[in-house]
Amino acid sequence: PVLVVDFGAQYAQLIARRVREASVYSEIVPSTVSADEVLARRPAAIILSGGPSSVYADGAPPVDPALLAAGVPVFGICYGFQAMAQALGGRVDRTGRREYGSTRLTVTEPGSPLLQDLPGELDVWMSHGDAVARAPEGFTVTARTPDTPIAAFEDVDRRLAGVQYHPEVVHSTGGQRVLERFLHDVAGIPPAWTPGRILDEQVRLVRERIGDERVICGLSGGVDSAVAAALVQRAVGDQLTCVFVDHGLLREGEREQVEQDFVAATGVRLVTVDARERFLSALAGVTDPETKRKIIGREFIRVFEQAAAEVSAAARTDSPDGAGVRFLVQGTLYPDVVESGGGTGTATIKSHHNVGGLPEDLTFELVEPLRTLFKDEVRLLGAELGLPAAIIRRHPFPGPGLGIRIIGEVTADRLATLRAADLVVRQEMTAAGVDDQVWQCPVVLLADVRSVGVQGDGRSYGHPVVLRPVTSEDAMTADWSRLPYDLLARISNRITGEVPEINRVVLDITSKPPGTIEWE
Ligand code: XMP
């Protein structure tokens, strides 16, 4: 793999993703891992990420010169660039100035292997205080900015290079090109990490792991569980049973999408549990958001466990050796693994409690075929597996579903109202071609609020719905989407015309933070 050494900036994941987008497999390692351990993993190249504001800061993690002397190609970014300079005998100065945001970069060595086919001047994204004042011996300085005379350098013979700016962010023109030139040309790594290969490899691993045992998978209607299930189905066929819990908090058409489209595309054996009544009665009279979440989470686990026990019992009667279900498939993705510290030793613990998840004391052994993958790759894999576009491109949807998008008590009537409004929003967004610009667009029913309006020939006293379209890279932060006014107008006209209970449509223009994406 290409190893991205994480110096604690939020950019390491983004760098790892960009490397994968260059069709090269990458993983993240914390900077506390020793040079020996890093090299023992036989990296094809190493990328040193951005990190603390200063190499002089207390506890600033150094780069072990051994890492740079092993003959492995190394690319330093921002802090990684400075730490590399320092480790190789260059000089880093505290300038007392901060260069932050978009800056004009001038390429001073147009023949540089890294920068050669870029324009001579380009806008790049900077965020640093210190600066490299003298490049280490053997290095050629290849670019500067008005404030930073040494903004990029390279030592082609030793295959070491770095840039002061952040090529991994979209605001840096040609950033991806620079990473690709480093990976493909300087480090000589072929762009071989393709969806077809990922699929073959994961199918093989799953087959090895599961052997001829039975396996079960919970489907939520979302991309991750669908792709994980389809992949396991490809690997072990009917040894897999999928369980889909209809908790009644789904959107219009989602149950059919799983029961018909997904099954048709994969041939998966599916058990649907209709638990709509059970969830509705458990939620009766409840308005507090956290209580709702707890109830939905608790009921979900009970229903799933019961279904799993039944599938297991059936497997026991079926199979010659009386074995039940041994494995459970989960659609865990690489960002969850990194964030929960799994496998990489990073300390951050994911704080977002995943309602709709399963308890940790399940008696199954976990199979997580997407554990090394980013979301974009999961979508590519879904396409490779022939899943319907509607599933692959589905926006994130919370486990507790519409239950946390009705502000107030959840009832069957209110669910029907919200479902109708939500359907209009999704139809119009798709028709306008904006699905790919929007991370997700919750539609929220303010069920305890009423306002006066005129609808048809008389006074109305109905409820508002809130549109919450957001853009985001990872749901940790978000901005509200600037959807076209004519699209918003169409949505508003249709909802107030087609859903009698709703007489007002409002737009949420709060970023996250301070707002969260969901309202509850
Ligand atoms: P917030 O509202 O915290 O949401 O900004 C961030 C992202 O997480 C989704 N979300 C959930 N997903 N179970 C999930 O699987 C949950 O309980 C849950 N709550 C929020 C939300 O839709 C957004 O994408």
TrEMBL record:
Annotated active site residues, numbered on this chain, are 78 (nucleophile), 166, 168
What Enzyme Commission number(s) appear in the record?
6.3.5.2
Pathway-wise, it operates in: Purine metabolism; GMP biosynthesis; GMP from XMP (L-Gln route): step 1/1
Query: In this protein, which residues make up the domain named GMPS ATP-PPase?
Result: 193-394
- Classification via PROSITE patterns: GATASE_TYPE_1, GMPS_ATP_PPASE
Q: Which residues form a coiled coil?
A: none
Enzyme class, broadest EC rank: ligase
What reaction gets catalysed by this protein? XMP + L-glutamine + ATP + H2O = GMP + L-glutamate + AMP + diphosphate + 2 H(+)
Where along this sequence does the record place binding of ATP?
220-226
UniProt xrefs under InterPro entries: Class_I_gatase-like, GATASE, GMP_synth_C, GMP_synth_GATase, GMP_synthase, GMPS_ATP_PPase_dom, NAD/GMP_synthase, Rossmann-like_a/b/a_fold
Gene Ontology cellular component?
A: cytosol
Q: Does the keyword Nucleotide-binding apply?
A: yes
Arranged from A to Z, the UniProt key words for this protein are:
ATP-binding, Glutamine amidotransferase, GMP biosynthesis, Ligase, Nucleotide-binding, Purine biosynthesis
Q: Which GO terms describe its molecular function?
A: ATP binding; GMP synthase activity
The protein's assembly and partners: Homodimer.
Annotated function: Catalyzes the synthesis of GMP from XMP.
What name is this protein filed under?
GMP synthase [glutamine-hydrolyzing]
Q: Which organism is it from?
A: Nakamurella endophytica
The gene name on file is: guaA
